[in-house]
Write a structure and sequence with these properties.
It is a single chain. This protein is mainly alpha-helical. 75% of the residues lie in helices and 0% in strands. It has 4 helices and no strands. Helix 1 runs antiparallel to helix 2, helix 2 packs across helix 3 and helix 2 packs parallel to helix 4. The longest helix is centred in the N-terminal third of the chain and has 35 residues.
């Protein structure tokens, strides 16, 4: 294997992770602006942040599966789960609460599902048809 390829693959995956967190930060800022400037409720802000996290999971799943080059659904799902766990860890670190039953954990599955779908889309351009040969 080429050294450039050995370094390039993890960098693409890391770039997708950082892009996902950038989208989450933009979603938090957008939710704050919506809550500040409009009479929208707090649930609207949560939906905006959840949508941004799902978009980030989709983009990270797409870039990671394109970098790995195979098993797009599994790679995208793993990336989405890692993103969901890092969101949960950041929540616990920022707000200083322990994981308890008062939190609704179900929405954390949406970035994981979006990552799996992104993994499928990331493989769309790199996969070969059955038989392993591209048509000329």
């Amino acid at each position: 294997m080429d050294k450039k390829m050995m370094i390039d693959r993890p960098m693409k995956i890391l770039k997708g992770f950082l892009t996902a967190w950038l989208l989450i930060a933009l979603g938090i800022a957008a939710a704050g602006m919506v809550l500040f400037l409009t009479p929208a409720g707090i649930k609207t802000g949560a939906y905006i942040i959840l949508g941004a996290a799902s978009a980030g999971g989709f983009l990270w799943g797409t870039s990671a599966s394109a970098a790995v080059g195979r098993r797009g659904l599994i790679v995208g799902l793993i990336c989405g789960i890692i993103l969901s766990l890092t969101i949960f860890a950041a929540y616990l670190l920022f707000f200083g609460v322990a994981a308890d039953r008062s939190l609704n954990y179900l929405p954390l599955g949406l970035p994981a599902a979006a990552g799996a779908v992104g993994g499928i889309f990331g493989m769309r351009g790199t996969s070969l048809p059955a038989g392993g040969k591209r048509k000329a």
